[in-house]
Write a structure and sequence with these properties.
Elements (H helix, E strand, L loop, with lengths): L5 H7 L5 E4 L8 H11 L3 E3 L6 H10 L16 E4 L2 E4 L1 H12 L11 H24 L12 H28 L16 H16 L1 H10 L3 H11 L2 H8 L22
The chain binds glutathione (GSH).
Length: 265
Amino acid sequence: MASETPAKRQKSSKDVPYRLIYWPGLPGRGEHIRLALEEAGAEYVDTAHLEDGINDVLAYNSGEQPKDETNIPLFAPPFLQHGDLVISQTPNILLYLGPRLGLVTDLENDPDGLYRINSLVLTALDGLSNEPHDCHHPIATGLYYEDQKEESKRKAEDYVKNRLPKFLGYFQRVLESKASGDGPWLYGGKLTYADLVLFQCLDGLMFMFPKATTKLEREGKHGKVFALHKAVAERPRIESYLESSRRQKYSNGVYRYYEELDFEG
Ligand SMILES: N[C@@H](CCC(=O)N[C@@H](CS)C(=O)NCC(=O)O)C(=O)O
């Protein structure tokens, strides 16, 4: 409904399940959304598990959806549909979901907290998701990996040697800061969706670069980052999700395993 205000929409769509629209067959960027929904125990439909789920993605990608006059055309999944709202961009979707799912700090007492959490998320996605993606697609997203193998080797070698320790070092600093508060979490002494994002990024990197991540863990300089990964994996809802068939295996997504890119750093 074009004339409905956001406040009204939230109210009217409060009980509507969320719908995650994402490619089937791989965790990909959609996984950040799934983890938030799973941790919160939210009711949601994941089109990756529907028989014709891929058609939902294709309909948005082609511009066939959304059909209404309020929502903007969307570029690439993940997409989140909630009531009559459809949005894209992983951190934007998380910004929408975080407060609704209770995955932020107490915003009444800490109204700036959301922007701190968002800053952590954007940094994690820059350095621990987008840059790893560029390790297997350094020249062009539209070319096959096989057509950019030599450049991929240069990129991946530099990534594990310089960029990965730099980003893990940053998150270690955050976890050592006063703002992190008590416990294993990044901000405010409470689990937020930023912790779930960092978990998923590190999890993917452990799959993609087992030699480098094992070495970094053994060196002990980023102990708090690895401890956060463990703490998230042990959350009861996350643990049962990770063991379920809803958790898809890594394949040809952001995090891929190529033996020739598995540098130790
Ligand atoms: N910055 C966007 C990136 C979205 C994106 O690249 N989606 C991928 C799947 S994970 C895709 O299908 N991209 C198609 C394209 O870039 O042409 C986000 O974080 O959601």
